[in-house]
Each structure stands twice: as structure tokens, then as C-alpha cells.
Amino acid sequence: MTLIEKTKKRLIRKKLVNRGDVLVVGVSGGADSVTLLYLLQALQHELGIQIHVAHFNHQLRRGANKDQVFVESLAKKFGLPFHTKSWKNPKSVEDLARKERFKFLTETAQKVNADAIVLAHHKDDLAETILMRILRGAGLQGLQGILSKKTLYGYTFIRPLLETSRFEIESFLKENNIPFRIDPTNKQPDFFRNKIRLKLLPLLEKEYSPNIKELLVNLGRNISTDYEYLDKQADAFFQNLVKNPSAKNSLQLDIKKLKKCPEAIERMVIRKAIAHLKGNTNRMALTHLDEISDLLDNRPVKSIVHLPGGIKVQKTSTSLIISK
After folding, report:
1. How far is it, in rounded angstroms, from Cα 198 to Cα 98?
2. What's the pLDDT at 100?
3. Of 207, 231, 265, which residue is a domain's last?
4. Are residues 124 and 246 in the same domain?
């Protein structure tokens, strides 16, 4: 089965796209995103999809402008609409650069009325991400790794290449004589992900398990299946516990009902409440959830816990009030 056929099968099996969908495809010019663009354009008529090419110029390294010209010429070659934005703050760190790229992609999706944003994360990225999160002490939600389809802030993100390895991508490019840009920073072990890719994974493959990447991917898939079930259960509890579900700045959870929940569901409900108000649960650690549990079980009425992101949790005689 060719990579084009494999990608088509995955898109249909996972229900990642529908006929008539408008897709914004993030293309950096690197091997992964160039392969993604070639695959999607080869399938666009058969699947009935419309493609917009989006390139964010981070200006974090030499050659960034050449990357932009390369991607623009690629879009022109395929007769596809091209969208780009050049970052005006090149001295900032990569985490901020990713946020700016995300902002650009969502703004482009809104402008062209896109149904989804397509990214080129592949199987090796998934294995690296799961290993990174293990080392950072992530819980079940984080250990899912990268999801094939996810809705974030009202936008759908899809990743058709998560079952495709870096080797398959490189083979596809070589067999079809497809040029791509090389980011030299990917070879620098200064960044955490690069250390995982260049040092830790090769060590684990050599000394412990030659198929460590596959094992990590399987771990993520198993956790994702289990977490999906738990998340649906937590949703049902959340709806039953919240006294003012339409509120935007403050939610009240029924303490009596909350204490009857299994501990795993209790924590997921609290995380859902925080995400409802804040938009995410970034910087929420196990220590914060432990503190909320202590608030529920041991601390007196009117006690307050302050969380990252300006979130406050207060205990009353009947409710746990979570506000921002």
C-alpha cells in the first residue's frame, strides 16, 4: 500500500475529513509538512476537499525567509491559495513562537471559513511527545500524546500522519524526488525535544528496547482509549454537579455530590470546571489538585485556594466555587 493510499484510508477510517471541507494546512517547508501537502493535494479531488496553504515565518533562524519563498512556490505549483505571516518579534523564545503560529493558523482558518486545520505530526513525534511527558510527570490526559483530531478554542485540528513514521516520510520524498527545506536547529540538542530525539531515544533503542517508539505509541493509544471513556463519564458528572453551567466567570459545584464521586472523576470534574473558565488547564499540577482535595475534606468553610492563571477556589457550606 502506498503512502497516499494509507493516508486516504486513515482519513476515511478516522473520519478526519468530509467531502466539501475547507482545510488550512500548516506547511513549514520541512520534510513532514511537505509530505503532508503532497499527500493531501493528491487526494483533494477524490476526497472533495479544498486546501489552503498556511506558512508562519517565525524569523528565529537564518534561512527563514527562504523557507517562506519555498512554501509559496510549492503552493503556486499546485495552484493552491497561500497565506503567510511574518513574526515581528524574532528575539522571543520558541514557546511564544508556537503560540504566535497557533494564532496565525486559527486566524487564517477563520478568514477562509475552514472546517479544520491540518498539521504534519507523525508517529515519531507521537513517541517523542509521550516520552517527554513521562519525564515531566504527566497524568492520563497528557500521556495520550498527540490526538488525530482535537477541538481547541472552537477550531478542529487534524493530524493524518500519526500512523506514519519518519522513515516512511523520508522514503516517500526520496522515491518521488521531492525537495524540502532542512531546519538546522533540529540537530541542536539545546531543546528538550531534540535531546529526546537525538540522545535518549537512540540510547533506549540500543540498550533497552529496539522497538521503544512503537511501545510508546501503543501506550499513548491505549491511554487515549481509556481516557476517552473516563472523560465521557466525567462530562456526565460535571453536568449533574454544576449549579450554574451557563456562567462564564464563576462555577458552583455541589460539594455533597462531588464528594460521592470516585477520586479520578472528582479530579476530572474540577479540571473541567477550570478549563471551562480559563480555556485550558495549563500549569495545573497534581499538587494543585491535592490542595483542592484537602480544601474539600479538611479545611473550614470560606477557605480559599489560589491556582495558576488567576483561578480561585472557595469552599462554602454547600458549594465549591471556582472563579477567575
Report:
1. 21
2. 86
3. 207
4. no
